[in-house]
Each structure stands twice: as C-alpha cells, then as structure tokens.
User: What shape does this take?
Amino acid sequence: MKIILYSATGSNSSERIEWLLEYNQVDYQRIEVDSNSLTTSYLSINPLGFVPSLSVDGFMLSESMAIAEYIDEQHLTTTLLGSSSQERARIRQVCEFVNSGIHAPQNRTAIKYWQPNLDESTKKVMRGRWIIESLKRLEKTLFQESQFAIGLSFSLADIYVASIYKKALQHGSEEYIAFTSHLNWLRTQEAILRAEPKT
Ligand SMILES: N[C@@H](CCC(=O)N[C@@H](CS)C(=O)NCC(=O)O)C(=O)O
Assistant: This one.
C-alpha cells in the first residue's frame, strides 16, 4: 500500500494528519506543497486548493476530517476516534468545532476575502485572539474525565485542540493555562511527543 500525504510546513490542518500517521507509525511519503504550487499544479491533486490531501494507492482525498475517518475505517491505524458511539460522537464534536468553527473563519483565504487590506501583523493578532476566545468556549466541554480532551485516552480531539492552540501561540497570543497544561500533558506521553510535528 502506498500512502502519500500532500502537506505544507506551517499548515495546521496538515499537522493533524501528520500527527495521526506518525503516532501510528504509518509508512507514508510526505510531499511539501509550496505556496506557488498550491494555486497551480497542486489543483490537479486537490481542486479545492487546500492542504492536506492524501493518496492511498491512488485514491485521492482532501479535508482532514474525511482523511482521518478514512484512515480509521480502513484500519490503517489504531483508532483515535473513540471506543463507543458516544465517545466517537464527542470526539467528532470537538474536531468539527475546531475545524469549521475555529480554523475556517481565520484561515488565510477567508481573511483575504473579508479583509483584503489588513496588514500582516494585525491579521496575526486577530487570528490569535479568535482562536483563544473560541478555545475558551470549547474548554467547557473538555477535560471532564481526564487530562485528555475527551475520555480517558489520546484521541483525534487532542490533536485538533493542541494543534490549533499552538497556532494561536505562533500568532503571538499569550498562553492560556488550560491549553498549555493540556499540551504539556500530551508531551509527557512519549509516543505522543515523538509523533508531534515539530513545526
Ligand atoms: N477544512 C480543511 C481546511 C484546510 C485548510 O484550510 N488548509 C490550509 C492550510 S492549514 C490551506 O491550504 N490554506 C491555503 C490557503 O488558504 O490558500 C481541512 O480540515 O483539511
């Protein structure tokens, strides 16, 4: 089986899939998509023009949630999507909120569309603030049974939450204790730390 991940350095959505694949020690090839290719040659891989995309023996897929669920359903990895239907639903609830509720409104294309004249440093501040404010809302639904986001073990919800929090820090936001504790907790687990993308 040949797995190819089309990814980009600094891409939050790609980081989710890299973390998942690395955690499960999946053998895959990573192809870096630079910003030029994103709007030209890469459109033949993913007409939507976003990373990540995944190819499994030539079957092409985009959208990190769809990719993670496909990987899970094909048993390419140990599940990080929960062990009961209720837990699976809760994990998806968190991932969806991060993906469409937090990440999408602050992504580069959306900001450029809504605020074409905004300078880069103001953009960074706004993006960081948006992420932290949204995470504060999400916090009320997290860490109820353990220090993991949902339930008692590492899941895709931890990956989505920790990755978007790191993005806020990269934008210059101040640390927020609950999510710094969460990140630090994940990093105490050897397998999780080893798999974490270092971007
Ligand atoms: N919902 C998509 C989001 C994909 C996305 O926004 N990718 C960003 C990088 S994190 C991208 O390709 N941005 C390029 C652009 O905005 O032009 C997913 O989960 O895969």
Notes: Residues 85-195 form a domain with the Glutathione S-transferase Yfyf (Class Pi); Chain A, domain 2 fold (CATH 1.20.1050.10). The first strand starts at residue 3 and ends at 7. DSSP finds nine helices and four strands in the chain. Strands lie at 3-7, 29-32, 53-56, 59-62.
